[in-house]
Every structure is written in C-alpha cells, then in structure tokens.
Design brief:
With 394 residues, the protein is α/β, with parallel strands linked by helices. The protein has 2 domains: 88 residues, Immunoglobulins (Immunoglobulin-like); 241 residues, Alpha/Beta hydrolase fold, catalytic domain (Rossmann fold, 3-Layer(aba) Sandwich). It has 9 helices and 18 strands. A hairpin with a 4-residue loop joins strand 5 and strand 6.
C-alpha cells in the first residue's frame, strides 16, 4: 500500500501531465520561450499600443485604413527581445480593424482573439471604449446568429447574420424586419463585428429610441471580388435576395410581411444594392437608407459605369410610379464630406428629387469609413417602424 506522500506525488504528476507541464516520454524538450506579449493594449486616454513578436522580421508595419492618420500604415520598431511595437492615438472611441505586415506578408494579431471577416480575408479587431451608443452596456442583449441557407438563385450554400432583439427567444411577438447590407470587399460578418450593429440596436431598444426589430445582414458578394471591375455584381444579389433571402426570413422568423414593417439600408456597394432592390420593388419597402453611396456611374465614372442603358433608363417606370411612392415613409441618405462618393450621392439625390421622391439627405464630417457608418446606423434605426409598431398595416 502506498503511503500518503507517495499518493500525493502521483496525483501531482498526473495533474502536471494533464496541464502539459511535464513532457510525455520521448518528447523533445521545449526550447526557450519568448517574452509575453500583450496586444492590443488600450490605455485610459485611448492610446492603443500594438505589439507582435517577430524576431526574424526585417520590417513590420501596422495596417488599418479606418484608424485615423494611419492610411499608409504605421512603421513599428523592434526591441532587443524581438517584439515590434507602435502606439497610436488618442483615437476616437470606436472599433478598428488592423493587421500586421511582416516583410510583405499580412498577419493577424496572434495575441488577440477578436476578428472581423471580409469577403476574402480576416482582420484583427480592437475596441476603443467611450462611445455610449456602441459600447457594451448593462442592458438586455439580443443575439446575433450565423445562419446557413441554400441559395436556389446561386445553386450553393450561403450564410447571413441575423440579429434578434432581447426577448425574441421567448417565442412571443412578431417583429418588423430591417435588411442591412455591407460594402464592397466586406462580408455578412462585417456589420455585426466592426459595425457593432447588435450592440447599437441593444442600446437603442433599451433606451426606447428604436422599436425591437429583426436585423438581417446578408452576404452581398455572390463570389470573388476584386477592385477595378467595370461593374459590381449587383444583379446576382438582387435575384438572390428576392428568391431566397427574403422568403427564408419570412418563413423562419416571426416577422411582419407587409411593406410598412420592412426596411432596407446599405453602405457603399450595399447602398447601390438597396437602390437596385428597393426602387423596382418599392411596393414592398416602407423605409430605404443609403450610406456613403448612390447610383454607381451616375457621374460618368466609378464602379457601375459602362455600356448599355443608364440606371435611370432601366428604372424609369418605377421612378414615375406615383402610387408606390405614397407608401415610402422614409428615403434617407448620408455621406461624409471627404467621401470619394460624395458627388455620386449628390447626383443620386438630385435624380430622385426630380422624380418626386421626398429624400432626406445629410452630409457629415469624415470619409468612407466605419467611423461614419456606425453613426449613420445609430441615427437611421430610430426612424424605422414608429408609425407601424405593433400592427400589420401597410
């Protein structure tokens, strides 16, 4: 029989093996470990320090176009332990994407689990607190689900993210639905990660500034994307939205199916898709929003230009239909004064007004950036469904 010290020794050995402290028999001993690295590190004054251990790298830059003043990337410096570091800020409160460029290779932050997915790559994510409308607060929270469905229009499985408001899981109530579209090169994950859509809606609903609603964030790209194409693939997504996305939501979620309880908005490419879907199907939408966008090619250049009839010519019968305009409760545009699509937005608003649409248009500070788009969502969502809340009227 083992004595008590022998039993204790055996137990400690088993525990150490389970936690990986003692290497198994025959294993090679681990080499010397590098320094502990914390990244990103956000200080109380909103300065952010980024670090990566890369002792063999010759040059490292921090890449993150939405970070103010970091359009070309920031050079990082290496200490004697091989840790590269740079401090930026103080930064405005918000959420920022970034990655490291190590000798020409893009690398996400290995010390941070927070990520945001684009159409064909992954970004690391850092949250700089201090913005009450998008911070995580002690309020009831909804849920954001990744939903896989089969697209009959594209003959393949697809994914979308869906926000359900606090209390939805109780099985009670029917809700309006808001389709929220992302921009070029992004994905269905973008609005709920870097865009903070779920937290923005949680806070608005808790403050009773917005009615509880379902927010559907689909994948606007139907395949690989590259800049410089003569046309963005808007028509494929339009077909898929009408054939698959909208029917799926109305079959599987407790949503109203009348016009007065249905809204759509999008940023950049998603704004163009909102126009491409909303105008020809205006009898199905009570609210439309266009963020940093408009009719691509309307000014004679940019994405969407090319041969064939203009957008105005293709949609003339819908633009002239006075009956469908009557049920459109809100047509809302916003664009930053430094946005490269500012003239596209202005020309689009002028065209719509020419056909008698009552358009709300505002120009803000800033450019083509998530710093603006989160603000636009925060301002747009409270305007939705107030006249129709709790009823199924058209």
């Amino acid at each position: 029989m083992m004595n008590q010290p022998s039993v204790l020794c055996l137990v400690m050995t088993v525990l150490l093996l389970g936690f990986g402290t003692v290497p198994p028999a025959g294993a090679q001993p681990r080499g010397p470990q590098g320094p502990q690295v914390t990244s990103p590190e956000v200080s109380a004054d909103r300065q952010v320090t980024f670090r990566i251990l890369a002792p063999q790298a010759d040059a490292v830059r921090l890449i993150g176009g939405d970070i103010p003043g970091n359009g070309q990337g920031a050079e990082m410096t290496k200490n004697e332990e091989g840790v590269w570091e740079v401090t930026l800020g103080p930064l405005p409160p918000g959420t920022y994407r970034y990655h490291f460029n190590l000798d020409g290779v893009a690398v996400i932050d290995p010390r941070s689990p927070a990520i945001s997915l684009s159409n064909d790559n992954v970004w690391s994510l850092v949250v700089v607190p201090g913005s009450e409308f998008q911070d995580i607060r002690d309020v009831p929270h909804g849920a954001v689900s990744a939903v896989t469905y089969y697209s009959t229009a594209l003959s393949k499985f697809r994914r979308m993210h869906v926000y359900t408001p606090p209390g939805y899981e109780s099985g009670q109530g029917t809700f309006p639905v808001f389709y929220l579209l992302h921009g070029a090169s992004d994905s269905d994950h973008s609005w709920s990660s870097v865009g903070r859509a779920g937290f923005i809606l949680d806070n608005l609903i808790a403050e009773k500034k917005a009615v509880p609603m379902i927010v559907v964030m689909p994948a606007g790209h139907t395949g690989p994307f590259s800049w410089g194409r003569s046309r963005l693939p808007l028509d494929e997504f339009t077909n898929e939205f009408m054939a698959d996305i909208k029917p799926y939501i109305e079959k599987n979620y407790r949503v109203y199916t009348d016009r007065g309880h249905r809204a759509m908005a999008g940023l950049s490419m998603g704004g163009g898709q909102t126009l491409n879907i909303g105008i020809p199907h205006l009898d199905q939408f009570g609210y439309l929003g266009v963020f940093s966008s408009g009719i691509f090619g309307i000014t004679g250049g940019g994405p969407g230009g090319g041969q064939g009839p203009s957008w105005e010519e293709r949609n003339k019968e819908f633009l002239e239909n006075g009956e469908t305009k009557k049920g459109l409760r809100l047509f809302w545009f916003a664009t930053g004064k430094e946005d490269f699509l500012i003239e596209t937005s202005r020309a689009t608003v002028d065209l719509l007004k020419k056909y008698g649409f009552d358009v709300t248009y505002k120009e803000t500070e800033g450019g083509h950036t998530w710093l603006n788009w989160r603000d636009y969502l925060h301002e747009f969502a409270p305007l939705l469904f107030k006249e129709t809340s709790g009823s199924g009227e058209n």
